[in-house]
Amino acid sequence: TNDRTPAEFVNNDQKPLGFGRMLRKEDRRFVRGKGTFCDDVQLPGMLHLAILRSPVAHARIAGIDISAAEAHPKVKAVVTGAMLAERNLAWMPTLSNDVQAVLATDKVRFQGQEVAFVVAEDRYAARDALELIDIDYDILDPVIDARTALSPGAPVIRTDVPGKENNHCFDWETGDAEETAAVFASAEVVVSEDMVYPRVHPAPLETCGAVADYDRVDGRLTLWSTTQAPHAHRTLYALVAGIPEHKIRVISPDIGGGFGGKVPIYPGYICAIVASTITGRPVKWMEDRSENLTSTGFARDYIMRGEIAANRDGRILAIRTNVLADHGAFNGVATPVKYPAGFFGVFTGSYDLQAAHCKMTAVYTNKAPGGVAYACSFRITEAVYLIERMVSRLADELDLDAAELRLKNLLRPQQFPYRTKTGWVYDSGDYEPTMRKAMELAGYAELRREQAGRRARGELMGIGISFFTEAVGAGPRKDMDILGLGMADGCELRVHPTGTAVVRLAVQTQGQGHETTFAQIIAEELGIPPDDVDVVHGDTDQTPFGLGTYGSRSTPVSGAAAALAARKVRDKARLIASAMLEVSATDLEWRKGAFHVAGDPSTSVTIQDIAMRAHGSGDLPDGVEGGLEAQVCYNPENLTYPHGAYICVVDIDPDTAQVKVRRFIAVDDCGTQINPMIIDGQVHGGLTDGVGMALMEMMAFDEDGNCLTGSLMDYLLPTALEVPDWETGYTVTPSPHHPLGAKGIGECATVGSPPAIVNAVIDALRPLGVHAIDMPLTPSRVWDAMRGVPRPP
Ligand code: PCD
């Protein structure tokens, strides 16, 4: 293997000190079972909290009797919404300026909603006591289908909002309606299609949970919680719960996967805090799998109508879409507040268009809240699906090759920075080589020949393509904030006297390997081994403020902050080196790890020598303080725009309608690569997500609003059995504004893969006259499509 262990990074010219394949430092702890996850936290005297959830989707609460539960010998407290209301804590703000019930007071609005909680001496007693709570529900008609949510006479869900008479959540529009209509009117070809991006769930391995420890003596709250954004959560707790911010410490320990689902603040966290304040004891709350699936943030749930306009020769002119968004009972979307539809505005994709327009309506339904960016920079997954389905649909209509049609319309390198018709400025891109590389890796021409042969024999083989541009790395802070908190990130770097270092970050790894890659960034910039750099994160007492890890923003934002902090340290080191070597600072040249006198490479001092001098007793140059450290708050100039070209090959069994992903070729471009091994892992994970969404995953509900996918027996996740050996490749187009040229990669494959798979299935079924099908492409749906049965609504 060419994956070096950290110790193999040595200071010589053969082996790079910074970027490159390197095994993950954190895995030393993880493979030995030495991680510390939320549920591993054990405090003396700790109590356990369990939440009672609504069994129905929509009902008025007529009465609650908690007396039997309170009488349970191991129960310390039973709390209802009414009791929270007395403390003004029954409702909390969501990240998108709506409110959400912590515990229901008036009504329950989705199955699984939090209604009461019990605190007991152990986990079992807490669960047992839930059964002793007696609640009287007056059942109301639920609103389950987003299409009927605005029908006259539909039951109103948000009766808590004064004057609210319907289930309208928001309207949103982008692009130019008139300009787009004009282009459509004069286009030679217009193709349209209806599509559903079903409700799915991030379903991380570790569910959500918290341990709250409120110290009544000095009024200090320590909260271990499964959060992707510890600093933002702390500020919001201070604003909502009224505990002063400096008295709150949020610790995000090891996290077993986030995938966007751990960005929101969930009622359970607040309940744990309340429980600790009223009992004076530490309190642990951990969800089980069903609670996680049924009550925490869902993703997608967009019903889209797409229209694409083109010339007969395949020149794409414009795209237009109408979206109906199902937001569930509360608008719990975690997105920069100016963007209620997230970054859906990038639905113009990777093509040079004359016009684009999107109109969206969002509604409330009696389903769990959310709209989280599950491995998706805020709704880009939906946007990429829309355009990539439409482009393949157009190829189908014009009888053109789907790869050639894309090549004809991709943006050209000289068009960057490129402003889209919806106002996004793509920083850099060189798309054609990426597409060509994917075609080459796939052996595209040969695959098409093979397909023709198989078709002639009646076999169902399909080749699907997608080309995507993602927008990752939110800020800049002038455009992007979450509840008023600007999206910039702090970083602190301290080099110790012996030349090892500690870097303190505002972002928090959930499995991405930050303890390795951020050490590599410092190593690259300072020329010290990555093993000599400790990465501290996930603890608000130990790290500078910043908005957290999601939207693949860690490398674009905090990665830039880390590089700039290291460069500040280097600038100071240069001054100290000039004193040590008694030459002017301008006569010094930096070569990884040391300053040399220009023209005399034998005279040099290493960064370790400089660190000792910086902390030592010797003289420092005038105006230079002792110590070797730096602090940066990085406000990105723009998002970074990674891109990729994906090709999927499927075979469909004509007798069972089972789809088999035979091959999947992914060529990604995330600019400068810090750790290609980790990048490969990120891509593998995202592609697996894509197979899950395309073929298996959907949160389903019956007409009463019962969630039908509350366990992993029904909510199907992909395993090694459903995925092929991934074939990955890369091109490198650096970001011009990022100090390292790096772009994010974490979500690219999840975003780019579903349309490639769906396009492949439709391509396979084309001889049967199939032009559209909705995810998940389960055997029964494919079977129906093969027999011309109309799609489910
Ligand atoms: N990188 C490199 N290079 C480049 C880029 C990147 O190397 N150029 C690497 C880094 O450093 C890291 C990774 O890779 O380590 C990633 O990164 P990014 O892209 O920056 O991202 P982040 O921020 O870090 O992360 C985040 C993401 C997300 S967002 C998601 S979903 C998912 C992903 O991440 N999640 C997860 N991936 C993952 N993995 C794991 N393991 N786990 C998890 O959980 Mo969202 O918004 O939240 O929905």
From TrEMBL:
EC number: 1.2.5.3
Family annotation (Pfam families): Ald_Xan_dh_C, MoCoBD_1, MoCoBD_2
Presence of keyword Oxidoreductase: yes
EC class name: oxidoreductase
Keywords: Molybdenum, Oxidoreductase
Domain Aldehyde oxidase/xanthine dehydrogenase a/b hammerhead: 32-141
Protein name, as recorded: Aerobic carbon-monoxide dehydrogenase large subunit
